Amino acid sequence: MAEKEEVKLLGIWASPFSRRIEMALKLKGIPYDYVEEILEHKSPLLLALNPIHKKVPVLVHNGKTILESQVILEYIDETWKQSPILPQDPYERSKARFLAKLVDEQIITAGFVSMARADEKGREALAEQTRELIMNLEKELVGKDFFGGKSVGFLDLVAGSMIPFCLERGWEGIGLKVITEEKFPEYSRWVKNLEKVEAVKDCIPPREKHVEHMNYMGERIRSA
Amino acid sequence: MEEKKSKVILHGMWASTYSKRVEIALKLKGISYEYVEEDLQNKTESLIQLNPVLKKIPLLVHDGKPVADTQVILDYIDETWKNSSRFYPEDPYERAQVRFWVIYINQQVFEVMGRVMLQEGEAQANSVEEARERFKVLEEGLKKQFPNKTIRGNDDVGLLDIIIIASFGVHKALHEAIGVEIIDPVNTPTLYNWIEQLQELTVIKEVEVPHDRLVTFLQKCRQEHLQHTANA
C-alpha cells in the first residue's frame, strides 16, 4: 500500500450520526479531513456524493463514498483493524447491532417526539416510553465499563452520540427530566466512563451551543 | 469439518417477507431448523419471552439464544455458519454497497409500499407515484453497482439477492391484490430480470407461497385496515 490514504468526512457539528464517525476515526487513530455542512445550504459536494438522501455523514475513502452512519462504522471497522469496535463473537455482535438499531430507530423517535410535543402530558408519556426503551441498555451495562466491555465499542459510539450527547441536551433545554441517576445507575456510570475517553470527549458537541441548538430545533417543530 | 450439532428454531409467519428472508438464508447455508408458525393475533409464549423488546417475527433461537430483528439475524447466520457460501463480498467497500441498498429497500421502498397497500383514492395514487420514483432509484442503483448480474446457482446468491427475492418475488400477488403494477419488464427491467433469475433456483421454489392464498391474505389485510381507518 504505497499511496497516501485519503479520508474525508462530511458532517454537521450537532449531528449525533456524524459525531459517532469522528469518534470511531479518532479511536482508531485515522487522520481525516473534516468538512462541516450547513443544514440549510447543502454543499454541491454533499449533493454530488449523496444525491439519494442528501444527508450526512458521508465518508470518502480514497475516492470511494460510503453512506449511512452504521454502514460507515462497519466499513471503518473492516478496513482499519486496530482497536476493533464490533465484538468478535457473532452472538455478542448480534446484541450490539440489535441495541444499536433500537437506539437509531425507536429511542431517537420517542426522544425527538417528546421534545416536539407542546403539552406536558404528551411529553411525559413519551418520556416514559423512552425510559422503557433505555432500560434495555441499562440492563446490558451491568458489570461492564462500556457496552464493548473494557473498551469503547460500536454500541457505545451509537448510543453515546445519541443519548447523553444529543437527546439529553434537548431534554435539558425544555426542562424534561427523562434519565435520573436513581433509576439508571448503570447508564449514569457509563456516561462518566465515556467522558474520560479522549476519542469520545474530543468529539462531543459543545454543551451550551448544543442545548441552544436543540431548543431552536424543538421550537421549530412545535410551531410547525 | 464436523460441526457441533446445534438446535435452530425459527419463529416466523408464512406471509411475511421478513420471515422469508431468514428461511432462504437458513436453506442456503444448509442449516436444519425447526419452524414455528406464529399467529400474529395470538403470539406464542416463547416468542414473547424470547423477544420481549419487540415481540416480533422473525425470531431465531440458536441453542437457546434468541436473535431478533431480520437484518441482525441474517448477519448472525452469515457470521456463525462460515463454511458455506458467504452473504457478503470480501471487500469492505462492496460490503458497504450491499448494506446501503438493503437499507434503501427496507427504509425507502418498504415504507412507501406499505402506504400503497393500505391507502385508497388520491392518497394511494400519490403514494404509487412516490413508489415508482423510489423503485427507479433502486433500478438505477442496481444497474450501476451490479452490471451483468447473472445467477447460475446458490453460490451466486448473497444478502442483496435474498432481500430482493423475499421482498419482491411476490410482486405478481401484490399487483393483483392492489391492482397496481410497479415492478415490470418495462419500468424496472434490471430488478425484474434479477427476480426471474432467482425464481429459477430450487431453494427459492421451496419457500414459494401459493399465489392465490397470498392475494386473498393481502386483500384481507387491506380491507381490514381501510375499514378500521374509516371507523376511527
TrEMBL record, chain A:
Reaction(s) the record says it catalyses: RX + glutathione = an S-substituted glutathione + a halide anion + H(+)
Keywords: Cytoplasm, Detoxification, Transferase
Annotated transmembrane regions: none
InterPro entries hit by this protein: Glutathione-S-Trfase_C-like (IPR010987), Glutathione-S-Trfase_C_sf (IPR036282), Glutathione_S-Trfase (IPR040079), Glutathione_S-Trfase_N (IPR004045), GST_C (IPR004046), GST_C_Tau (IPR045074), Omega/Tau-like (IPR045073), Thioredoxin-like_sf (IPR036249)
EC number: 2.5.1.18
Residue ranges of every copy of the GST C-terminal domain listed in the record: 89-217
Pfam families: GST_C (PF00043), GST_N (PF02798)
Keyword hit for Zinc: no
Gene3D superfamilies listed in its UniProt record: 1.20.1050.10, Glutaredoxin
Cellular compartments annotated: Cytoplasm, Cytosol
Domain GST N-terminal: 5-84
PANTHER family hit by this protein: GLUTATHIONE S-TRANSFERASE U5-RELATED (PTHR11260:SF533), GLUTATHIONE S-TRANSFERASE, GST, SUPERFAMILY, GST DOMAIN CONTAINING (PTHR11260)
Record family assignment: Belongs to the GST superfamily. Tau family.
Protein name (database record): glutathione transferase
UniProtKB/TrEMBL annotation, chain B:
TM regions (residue ranges): none
Pfam families recorded: GST_N
EC number: 2.5.1.18
Annotated catalysed reactions: RX + glutathione = an S-substituted glutathione + a halide anion + H(+)
Transferase keyword on record: yes
Residue ranges of domain GST C-terminal in the record: 91-218
Function, as annotated: Is involved in the conjugation of reduced glutathione to a wide number of exogenous and endogenous hydrophobic electrophiles.
PANTHER family cross-referenced by the UniProt entry: GLUTATHIONE S-TRANSFERASE U10 (PTHR11260:SF775), GLUTATHIONE S-TRANSFERASE, GST, SUPERFAMILY, GST DOMAIN CONTAINING (PTHR11260)
Designated name of the protein: Glutathione S-transferase
Organism field: Brassica rapa subsp. trilocularis
